[in-house]
Amino acid sequence: DKWQKPEQVVKALQIRPDEVIADIGAGTGYFARRFAHHAARVYAVDIDGKLLDKARENAPANLETVLAAPDDPRLPDKSVDTVFFCNVLHHIENRPAYYAKLKAALKPGGRIVNIDFYKKPLPVGPPVSMKLSEDDVIAEFKASGFRLARKLEYLPYQYFLKFTPE
Questions:
Q1: Distance (Å, rounded) from C-alpha 28 to C-alpha 54?
Q2: Are 83 and 55 contacting, i.e. CB atoms less than 8 angstroms apart?
Q3: Which alpha helices (H) appear in 4-131, and where do they start and end?
Q4: What is the DSSP secondary structure assignment for residue 89, as one 8-state letter?
Q5: What's the pTM?
Q6: How far apart are CA 26 and CA 23, in angstroms?
Q7: What is the DSSP string of 98-166?
């Protein structure tokens, strides 16, 4: 919590009470559980059913788990206002195809938020070889029909980017 600053992340998202959020790579629900206290519905999306089982334990009633495929978040079209990633993008192999599925899942006016480790040696996170640079992520989203709408720089080890469809 000290360097991830989850309360500040939640505050920065300015979640509306009627909002639907999909936390991709939700794991045990680190962020999804926090979002559920502010949003109408939260989809905790992951490819690991055992992690999702833990996310469901004592979860708020508005948190729903979604067992995804590595290449498909399995979200209905026009079902979410915010797609949230934290330290997950480097695990997705064909990101442009995945972004297209996310674009279809977004409601009009929706957004994608990505928080990920800077591509440099850090005391936390994966090895540099696994990390995606901020510039590469911005370029990938742009090539997939998104524009960078906001960039926050208060996390010590991660960039925080908000994208909207063009």
A1: 5
A2: no
A3: 6-13, 32-36, 49-56, 95-105
A4: G
A5: 0.95
A6: 5
A7: HHHHHHHHEEEEEEEEEEEE-SS--SSSS-GGG---HHHHHHHHHHTTEEEEEEE---SSEEEEEEEE-
Backbone angles phi, psi at 152, to 5 degrees: -115, 145
Give the CB-side neighbour count of residue 91, counting CA atoms within 13 A: 19
Amino acid at 27: G
Tokens standing for residue 18: 């009627």
The average confidence (pLDDT) of the chain is: 96
Pairing of strands 41-46, 158-165: unpaired
Burial 10-36, CB ≥16 within 10 A → b, else e: bebbebeeebbbbbbbbbbbbbbbbbb
Helix or strand holding residue 93 (H, E): none
80-102 per-position pLDDT tens digit:
999 999 999 999 999 999 999 99
